[in-house]
Amino acid sequence: MPCNYKDYHPKWTLIVRLIKKREGNCCKFCGVANGFIGRRTKYGIRPLSRDGIETDMIKQKQRNGYSYAGALKALRFTKIVLTVAHLDHNKHNNRFYNLAALCQRCHLRHDIKQHTANRKYGRSHNSPNQLTLL
Questions:
Q1: Which domain does 32 fall in, by range?
Q2: Residue 108: how many CA atoms within 13 Å on its side-chain side?
């Protein structure tokens, strides 16, 4: 989901850098490092082996016209990207105790109720002009 930076603090990029540094550049919930390349499994995340068959498979994909990122995606690998989440779901509460660096998977799980409501009722379902369904 695209982020509208007009809804956030004017110095949001600085706040993001400080929060990621505070968390050690790792997800607060699952501990995976920012920029880590691996494959998600039901047991956790398995790293990309740098000297094995997977590297050869990536090189083969690149020879066939894929970019490095495209080759990773085709082989079902992912690069972890940290985002900053508001723990109380209030975009205007930028206190440092309310912010956490989360990987995209943990951030989505943290906001799942909001995403479900947006999908079901539309993004304006909490606006004051919205009628309530009985």
A1: 9-36+80-112
A2: 5
- The pair of structure tokens assigned to 69 is 């990122």
- Secondary structure element (H or E) that encloses residue 20, with its range: helix 12-22
Compute the average pLDDT of residues 73-93: 92
Q: What is the dihedral of CA 87, 93, 95, 98, to 10 degrees?
A: -10
What's the structural domain count of the chain?
2
Q: φ and ψ at 92, to 5 degrees? A: -95, -10
Q: How many whole angstroms separate alpha carbon 119 and alpha carbon 100?
A: 25
Are 56 and 68 in a shared domain?
yes
What is the pLDDT at residue 130? Answer: 59
Instruction: Specify the pTM.
Output: 0.78
55 has pLDDT over 60: yes
